[in-house]
Design goal:
alpha/beta; Rossmann fold; 7-stranded parallel sheet; 9 helices; 7 strands; 12% strand
């Protein structure tokens, strides 16, 4: 049977690469995104029978409409990919309440609303959920307090879903990539110029591309992994934190803190 997939944040970056990957496998893909122009570009690339849906992930009603449209057009839903997300960052004393609310609304509640909207369809198909978190949800770098907190919450929520939905036959996966070449820094607000410059330098030096991470995600879903770690260095860091939390891990993170503080202070 042809797989039916809905991907939020599907018009750029990792979401776009996931859409391409599943379309190449013969799936029917619905890309959902708030950016209409980018949606049109991806829709033109993918063509029929794929769908492009405008979606603000912070609006539960829009999620319900998107899932209903997918089920009407495709006859159901087999895989929900909660990929939409934004970046934030900066020293703890500089992250505003508005920045915290924005990232929690999009990066956390957008995932919650997507899962709630899709559950009935996924129960019927005994389908799957792929939530895109980050290594920042497992390893908490400095200068990224609100982002770390939101992604850690996505990891925790995904584990909750794993156990709660097991009897429904719904598989739950959470992807935690490290830094990869993407345009995520573009989502930072105008007042975050310093953090944008830091992230742009980090992304430019990243070894993996969005295509690489998408392939790892698809392979992880296929093999039934709950926690999908796309980066070798991420797997190593996660292992160090679990085995040596009070010695080696803290030493490494203090070193990283010093490096990021220097990068933050460096002119763009």
């Amino acid at each position: 049977m042809t797989q039916r997939v809905l991907i939020s944040g599907g018009a750029s970056g990792l979401g776009r690469e996931l859409a391409r990957a599943y379309a190449e496998r013969g799936a029917k893909v619905a890309i959902a995104d708030i950016h209409a122009e980018r949606l049109a570009e991806v829709q033109a690339e993918l063509g029929a029978p794929h769908l492009a849906l405008e979606l603000d992930v912070t609006d539960p009603a829009q999620w319900q409409t998107a899932v209903a449209r997918v089920c009407a057009e495709f006859g159901g839903l087999d895989l929900l990919v909660n990929n939409a997300g934004i970046a934030t960052g900066g020293p703890v004393e500089q992250e505003s309440a508005q920045a915290w609310r924005r990232i929690l609304d999009i990066n956390l509640l957008g995932v919650v609303y997507g899962c709630q909207a899709a559950l009935a369809a996924l129960r019927e198909s005994r389908g799957a959920i792929l939530n895109v978190a980050s290594m920042a949800g497992l390893i908490h770098p400095p200068m990224m307090g609100s982002y770390n907190a939101a992604k850690a919450a996505v990891v925790a929520y995904s584990e909750t879903l794993l156990f709660e939905l097991a009897d429904d036959g719904i598989a739950v996966h959470v992807l935690c990539p490290g830094f990869f070449r993407t345009n995520l820094h573009e989502s930072l607000p105008p007042e975050s110029d310093a953090m944008r410059a830091v992230l742009e330098r980090i992304f430019d030096r990243a070894k993996l591309s969005a295509t690489d991470v998408a392939r790892a995600a698809v392979a992880g879903v296929d093999s039934g992994q709950h926690l999908i770690l796309s980066h070798p260095e991420g797997r190593a860091a996660h292992r160090i934190k679990r085995l040596f939390p009070s010695t080696l891990y803290r030493k490494l993170m203090r070193k990283q803190t010093a490096g990021l503080v220097r990068a933050w202070s460096r002119p763009a």
